[in-house]
Each structure stands twice: as structure tokens, then as C-alpha cells.
Amino acid sequence: MLELTPSQTVGPFFAFGLPFDGGGDVVPAGTPGAITLHGTVRDGAGAPVPDALLEFWQTGPDGRLPTRSGSLHRDGRSFTGFARVPTDRAGDYHLRTLRPAAPSGSPHAPHLAVAVFARGLLHHLFTRVYFPNHVEANAADPLLSVLDEERRATLVAVPDGGPTGPGYRFDVRMQGPGETVFLDLSTHGLAQPPVATTETPA
Amino acid sequence: MSASQQPATQREVSAEIATAAGVPPRADGHPERAYGPYRSTALRAPQQPLVVSPPSLTELAAPVFGARDVAPIDADLTRHHTGDPLGERIIVTGRVLDGDGRPVRHQLLEIWQANAAGRYRHEGDQHPAPLDPNFTGGGRAITDDEGRYRFVTIKPGAYPWRNHTNAWRPAHIHFSLFGTAFTQRLVTQMYFPGDPLFGFDPIFQSVTDEKAQQRLVAAYDHDVTEPEWALGYRWDIVLDGAHATPPDPDGV
């Protein structure tokens, strides 16, 4: 085993390095079935975080994981399943995408995988966006099913549409009251019981 | 930084760094998110422990990038404008590997950095050092069949920041990487060997294990250096852990 390269913060100046044009337009405006997803990133004092960057990665409505390149320069036809959006001065982000479906054989309910980066965050955070309409799948989900109600709610988007069609709100609270559930997914590749547990604080 | 507190001195922050260095480091070498000497972590590190949970099939796959996403010139940051940027031209090359030593093929690397004077092309950077009209400081590349990458750029300058009084960042290049699984996502910083600012910098020192710190530092490599043209640095990057075999999207 090689020793891994440690993480360092994305810092405050990623604006000319990471965001790309149309980063939140996973599908073009007017695409049938498109949904919007938006929210606010807040810190431990409840203040908006204007220098966070969120990445979303997902299946499409067919449950397939995208395999075509073009995640930065989409061809307008293929669903790449990848979005990258910086927060604005108000800590808000916004994207337009399609509803995910669970891949065949997945024990997890449909969701978007999320990575959160920010100045002041030395190692990114993983979380997930689930959707409230998948009642049965959410109840059986290996993650949602082991969380208490209050914590589970931080992972479920809230219907909040607009004039352009159906939409959802998903806020990220980095710290404090209502803190978003963040995930340690590093058990991948290792033999671990398929049960979510809470890690012992170091 | 809390508004109610005066900025700390370097001496005070260095004492905090020394105290934090006495805590056993994380086994994986990553920094603790709540790291006091780096003031901005105070309100941005979660208080709840992370929830350990098996990755989903989505998280065991990764976004796909290719020729459509990155042009060859994107990897030469000295040629993004009509003129040559000021500063010391360098080559930065290496390999991206997983924990088992397998190359991470055909995946995206992105870099961004300050110019030779230590100034970022960003409205939030108020360091009174000159912008360079011939240098933006962002680059992209796709790894080859062996996981190799190669950037041409200029050596970034050190710059001050407001973590504490007289705080200076060692020269560094920000790197963003994808593996074959979203769980392998990594954003980090590459440093230059022998930088006198290492010991003073809370971000570098947030990696408390000395061996892990060294994995953030590129090596000068005279075989990479090109005569009459540019100095060469080598930096290999190892992504988190051994990843699972990517699921067959049609076979699961």
C-alpha cells in the first residue's frame, strides 16, 4: 500500500481554477423532467459561506452511471451527471439537473453524491441529497435508516419549486445546530459490515 | 477569525502548532478539520463525528472527463496570453496513483496558483503585489495511460494572509484530482522543497505527521529540467485508499 497524499484546503482563490461555465447546468433549460436544486451553505454561526464550492455526482433517471466524457464541456445531449457550483455572496448555490434513479441492485435510495469544499475546510466533506418522495426506498436506505429523525432530515431535500418547474431546497450547515450529516466513506474496498455506525472520536 | 479577538502573533500561533503536533496524527495522514492554528476552521469544521457508511454505487464511480474537456494548451500556463509571464518557468510532472500503486488513467487534474509575485488573479486578493497581464494561473490536464501528468507554469511566489499577524503562505500550487471513484476525490496543495516558511504555516502544519508533510513537497528533478528553458519538479499523488473494482453499470 502506498501512503496517500494528504488533503489541503481549497482556499479562497479557486474561482479561476475550478468553476467552469455552465457548471450547474447539468441539463439545458427546458429539458423535460428537469428539476432545480438550490440552497444555502452556512457556517457554525449560521452565517452564509460565500466561498464554498459544491460538487454533485449522480445517476440519471435511467439509473445508469454516466460513462461518456464531457463533464466540463457537455455536448448538450449526453447526461454527464456532474455539477460544480461555487456559492455566491449570499452563500447560495443553484443547479438544474434530472432526478436520479437507483442503479439496479443498489441498496441505496436515489440520491446525489455531494462533495463540499471551502476556505477553512482542510479536507472536503461528503454528504448526500435524498428526495422525500422515495418513502420506501429511503426507509430501507443503509444510511438514512440508521439516523435519528433530526439528523436524517438534513439529507432530504425539501420541495421548493419555482416558475420554471419542480425544484428542491438542500441547505448545508457545516457546523452547529442542524449540522448536515457528513460521511466517512473510506471503508470502500475494505470488508466492513454493511451497517452505518458512528466513528469513535479520536 | 473571531471579530472579538485581536489577531495572534506568529509566536502564539507557532506555540499552538507545536501543541497540535504533539497529538497523534490521523492514520491516513489527512489533517484534522478542526485545527486551531488555522483560524478559519473554527466555524467550518463539523462538530458531529462523520457517519461511517458504505459508499453507494454512485460514489464508487466517478465523473468522466476526456479530450472534449481539456485542450493540450490548458496544461501550459505560460501560453494562455500573448506574452510570456514573468517569473521562473518550471515543469511540474508526476503520476497519479491509487493506494495499491495502480495508475489513475485518463482522469482530470486541475491546478491554480498565484503568479511569481505572490498575487492571485482574484478580486479577493488584496496583496499589494503586481498582477501579471500574461498570467492567469489556472490549468487542466488529463492523465495518460500510465497516470502521468505534466504542467508548464511559473514558480508561484509566497504571499501574506490574515490568519495572524505576519502570516505568510509558503509557495504552493493548488491541485484538484479525481480517481475512479468519487470517494477518491482530493484537493490539496503542492509545495517546493526547502521552503523556509513551512514551519510557520498553519495550513502546511495542519498535516501533523512529518512523513505525511513530505508527501506534499515536490522533489527537484534535474532529469525533468530542460536545458536553456525550465527547471523541473516531480510530484506523485496517491489518492485515498484502495478503491473497489468499479461496478459494471449493466451487470450489477
UniProtKB/TrEMBL annotation, chain A:
<dbReference type="GO" id="GO:0018578">
    <property type="term" value="F:protocatechuate 3,4-dioxygenase activity"/>
</dbReference>
<dbReference type="InterPro" id="IPR000627">
    <property type="entry name" value="Intradiol_dOase_C"/>
</dbReference>
<protein>
    <submittedName>
        <fullName>Protocatechuate 3,4-dioxygenase subunit alpha</fullName>
        <ecNumber>1.13.11.3</ecNumber>
    </submittedName>
</protein>
<keyword id="KW-0223">Dioxygenase</keyword>
<feature type="domain" description="Intradiol ring-cleavage dioxygenases">
    <location>
        <begin position="34"/>
        <end position="176"/>
    </location>
</feature>
<dbReference type="InterPro" id="IPR050770">
    <property type="entry name" value="Intradiol_RC_Dioxygenase"/>
</dbReference>
<keyword id="KW-0560">Oxidoreductase</keyword>
<dbReference type="Pfam" id="PF00775">
    <property type="entry name" value="Dioxygenase_C"/>
</dbReference>
<dbReference type="InterPro" id="IPR012786">
    <property type="entry name" value="Protocat_dOase_a"/>
</dbReference>
<dbReference type="InterPro" id="IPR015889">
    <property type="entry name" value="Intradiol_dOase_core"/>
</dbReference>
<comment type="similarity">
    <text>Belongs to the intradiol ring-cleavage dioxygenase family.</text>
</comment>
